[in-house]
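Hey, can you fold this one?
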Amino acid sequence: MGIAVPTQFVSTNDLIPTRNALETMFAAINPTTGALPESGPPLSQLGSDTYHAWTLVGARNYFLYSGDSEFLSTIWANYTKAVAFLEAKVDPTIGLMNVTGLRDWARLGGGGINAEGNALLYKVLVDAADLADSHNITTLRDAWLRNATALKGRFNDVFWDSTQGMYVDNSTTTLTPQDANSFAILYNLTDSADKRTSISAGLTKNWNDKGAIAPELPDTISPFISGFELQAHFEAGEDDRAMDLLRREWGYMLYTPLSVQSTLLEGFTANGSLSYRSYRGYNYDPAYTSHAHGWSSGPTSALTIYVLGLSVTTPQGISWKFEPHTSGMSAAEGSFETPLGTFGASWSL
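Sure. Predicted structure:
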């Protein structure tokens, strides 16, 4: 939902599968607690606070691109329940969410007062306020924005490590995760430009010639999380760094003879082998690794939104932005469609 929906929008504009998936998830909500399942049927797994958050992010992404008010009305009662489910996990003495639904993208850790989970909650609150504003529900909008502002302050108080110049995974470790630090830039959790610059530089310490190794899942390169890192470097104004990561990680996937050279791997190890998550649920069997994975397609939207510089900023593109990141290239051209019509742009140097 965080990567594949923007990919669908800029490439095929086929958002019907997204709507179907979201309606399935919201229909399966726990009516008592407001918890969303981690996945739809037939797997129907439960117990993931972060996947719960990603479904909410996906709902806002879908509405941004489609302006589908009928969809939003259909899910709204369950959407607000689902936001309240996460907010209820905020510890009032700390002001941050206590992550108890531990299933995640395979990272280690993640429970308790954790930076990744709280970064996602911040994104959910800002998105929820945006959706409420688009339908003139001002009371909810204002409440969610107040909570987001408070969470941002506590996030910086608790997780920022000035010595390392990055956010730590939790208050008991010095580990600086790829996911939470990328989210912090991308979702505007940083409270200064200096922090964005410092994080962008710090993330490169995890790189090798094949991509970014995730400290929160050692010996692993996750194109899912690297897709957010890629966008974070653009947001930090480090365009050359973003393109360097793109060429390393996605270049490896598209040229390695270990894969099909036309679709994107779910993940791989630091040395490039396909034994992704071998010690983390995949039983040391490379056959578990997908070779055509939607969550690995971060550059698809990033090339349009950042390099070409074309994006929508309100539903359906009623307002839009053209802000190219020329990124060392001589020209770019592209387009996408919304229900309002076609948006196209090009630039050359």
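The chain has a mean pLDDT of 96. Let me know if you want another pass with a different chain boundary.
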